[in-house]
Amino acid sequence: MAEGHGSQLKPAPAKLKSEVSKYFMFKGSDGKDEFDKTTVVCKLCPQELRFCNDTTNLRNHLSRRHADKLFGFSDSGQQRLDVAFACKLQSDSPRAKKITEAIAMLICKDLRPYNIVENEGFQNLIKVLEPRYVMVTRKCLSEMVIPKKYAEVKTNVESSQQNELPLRVTAGHKGRLTRMSP
């Protein structure tokens, strides 16, 4: 804690709701409840900073001198993007499910091997597109995701065939194939 200043140090007033303010103290006037509203002292080092009714200077000081003490929230209380993207997607989240299904469709439609998910280039592509996604394993793809997709497609094909007329193909005039009704 920063001590040894000629003035007494006082905590930031309650009206300063920023996470940044908890790292700074205001210089108080000796023996008075008032404090200097233009100067703050860092609790982590003895440096005095100018305070201009916002936390920009304070935040800059923390990022330059005490980066390890940074926090995950902005002044508005919203989570910062770098912190939000640091947490991984749950495998049962809608976004993760959609990505996993897209990978399965790529494997099926383009006749790719399951181990494509282990390739460095493919993993890099997915990381760029969705940094929070945890790569699906080839075992999961081969034993769960693709068999499920196969069953869905098979059911759709069978149901669409039931709705269609039976197909009899004959070689018509000049070798053209024609559909004949039953």
TrEMBL record:
Domain of life of the native organism: Eukaryota
Sorted UniProt keywords: Ligase, Metal-binding, Nucleus, Transcription, Transcription regulation, Zinc, Zinc-finger
Gene3D superfamilies, alphabetized: Zinc finger, BED domain-containing (1.10.10.1070)
InterPro entries for the chain: Znf_BED, ZnF_BED_domain_contain, Znf_C2H2_sf
Locations listed in the record: Nucleus
Protein name per Swiss-Prot or TrEMBL: E3 SUMO-protein ligase ZBED1
Single GO molecular function: ligase activity
The BED-type domain, residue ranges: 35-66
PANTHER family found in the cross-reference section: ZINC FINGER BED DOMAIN-CONTAINING PROTEIN 39, ZINC FINGER BED DOMAIN-CONTAINING PROTEIN 4
SMART domains cross-referenced by the UniProt entry: ZnF_BED
Main location: nucleus
Species in which this protein is naturally found: Labeo rohita (Indian major carp)
SUPFAM superfamilies: beta-beta-alpha zinc fingers (SSF57667), Hermes dimerisation domain (SSF140996)
Lineage start: Eukaryota, Metazoa, Chordata, Craniata, Vertebrata
